[in-house]
Amino acid sequence: MIASKTDERADGLTKQSTLNITPDQIKKYDVAGPRYTSYPTADRFVEAFTEDTYQQALDHRRLNVRPLPFSMYVHIPFCESLCFYCACNKIITKQHKKSTEYLHYLSREIDLHVEHLGSGLTVTQLHLGGGSPTFFSDEELSELMTMIRRGFTLPAGGEYSIEIDPRTVNQQRLKHLAELGFNRLSFGVQDFDPEVQKAVHRLQPAEQVFDLTKEARELHFESVNIDLIYGLPKQTTKSFATTLSQVVALRPDRIALYAYAHLPERFKPQRRISQYELPTATAKIGMLSDAIAAFLNAGYVYVGMDHFALPNDALAVAKKQGRLHRNFQGYSTQADSDLIGLGVSSIGRIGATYSQNAKTLEEYYDALDHGHFPIVRGLALTRDDLIRRSVIMAIMCHGELQYESIELSYMINFREYFAQELTALKEKESLGMLIMEEDGIKVTETGWFFVRAIAMVFDRYLQIDANRARFSKII
Fold first, then answer.
1. For residues 324 and 398, is the Cβ–Cβ distance under 8 A?
2. Do 67 and 13 reside in the same domain of the chain?
């Protein structure tokens, strides 16, 4: 556990702290639950939400005098090799000609959006994810960015990020990404330990990541993110501590630290991982505790549930200024925005709606061949959904909730509307996970370990559905 010392910080955590997490707490709250990249969560999407519903949302936005800012996500599903832990929508192939066909259909999808929204709309955030976006060649990435700029405006000062498989890039490729306008990189590391890498089928020397990070800084990328996962097979608190030391030495601008979600019944690649090689919940708490201590001691701001950032990084600044938001990619600096999701399985948000594209290439291509948006499901949010979304996002992003802000926004009496939920929170308060004040709720330092469990209290869908097998464990 973390050594005891008091040094208050702006993010609400102490530089070093003693976190009194008991075995009973771990047993009670090591349950399955959403990560709340949205509310309602994507498993609540319905097929009754059709292409017509999506088009209506786009048309309504076009008529809006003061529409929300735009973000864009492009899903590139291809990977050359399989990582056993992966739960993403991906296609394993070494046939790079598949990307040429995929680009053709991305162009069609972009054109459909321009038809309904008009051309030249400003996109202030762009993220390429996957899969491995760097499966695309330099020429294909250039073509993709040309397609996007043909229909939309990417202004100077925007956030343009891409996920990187370190095994697929070199200095020249990084230079090309900078020339295309990308200013943020995210390297998939997960763990530097060779035995862990072997167990998950992702071998990549630490030196490779160090070299690429150095080159990225020389090319003046504004932010470099490192993805880590704790709870992988063969990991121990000792081995993960070594990885943490290496990451601190690397000093990326951001760190995303995720708990491995072992759901082999849903994700076939995970069936190659033996559950007997996975660390226990207690060991995972130790890894998380050690990680928080290591990163806080190195000067990082604890942005939220799974993100850390250096104090001058845009994410840390947004946290300090109360502008932090949570979307389908995790924490975001853009407080509230519409999101266009392009590509197979992509999720979008337009106004008070969520939508998702077809999950297979065949279905995705077929819809576009017939001139249709490849929307297969989604959700039109109710007033109750919007109220609860605001509550859950305040907890997840800021660790506190002011009743008055919800009351003024939605014209409700918070204590009456959420009487059942406030009663349920008293147990968590007794366990030191939060403080219930006269005018609001504040998550404690210990409570951050269980922040998903706190947010779940306000999830109406979980209240009426006890089946949580679809979700990952909280710890």
1. yes
2. no
